[in-house]
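Below is a filled-in request sheet from our internal design queue. Each sheet records the structural input a requester submitted and the sequence that came back. We keep these sheets so that new team members can see what a complete request looks like end to end.

REQUESTER: design group, bay 2
PRIORITY: normal
MODE: inverse folding
CHAIN LENGTH: 155
BACKBONE (tokenized):
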């Protein structure tokens, strides 16, 4: 096999190699041979499914400080963290009225597929903000519930 096939053989730890390539958006298709691992870099890229939910959340949610990130590599999830304060005591995020939401596939599934339900939960928050009940439903309704909670607690 030559380089024109764009197949490379890797004899070191595969997990280490995946961690190195994950930030660059390289998706790997792996086939194990006798003593080497073959990686095909020509595998077609699929659109990250949770990224669509994260983009919708960025548009719909408003807070003085907010950060939204999505991950489809190890387990499909969207992480939303924010604060109702613009200044934090001692410059520490957890000293503000902060919140952290987690959106993930329902029933403990590893990956999210389009049209499936998702679960949202308030994974961490300041004692100065209200509680949020865990909810499973369509992504649009979940984002609307988060937006309503942010509006109620922003005062």
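RETURNED SEQUENCE:
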């Amino acid at each position: 096999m030559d380089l024109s096939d764009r197949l490379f053989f890797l004899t070191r730890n595969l997990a280490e190699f995946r961690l190195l390539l994950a930030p660059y958006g390289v998706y790997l298709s792996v086939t194990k041979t006798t003593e080497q691992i073959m990686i095909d870099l020509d595998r077609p890229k699929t659109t990250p499914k949770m990224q669509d939910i994260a983009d919708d959340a960025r548009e719909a949610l408003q807070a003085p400080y907010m950060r939204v990130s999505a991950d489809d590599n190890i387990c499909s999830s969207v992480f939303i963290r924010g604060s109702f304060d613009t200044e934090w005591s001692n410059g520490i995020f957890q000293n503000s009225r902060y919140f952290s939401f987690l959106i993930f596939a329902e029933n403990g599934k590893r990956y999210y597929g389009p049209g499936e339900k998702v679960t949202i939960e308030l994974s961490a928050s300041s004692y100065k903000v209200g509680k949020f009940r865990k909810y499973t439903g369509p992504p649009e309704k979940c984002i609307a519930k988060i937006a309503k909670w942010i509006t109620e607690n922003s005062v």
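SHEET NOTES:
- Confidence is low (pLDDT under 50) at residues 1-16, 29-44.
- The helical segments are 14-21, 49-60, 139-153.
FILED BY: M.R.
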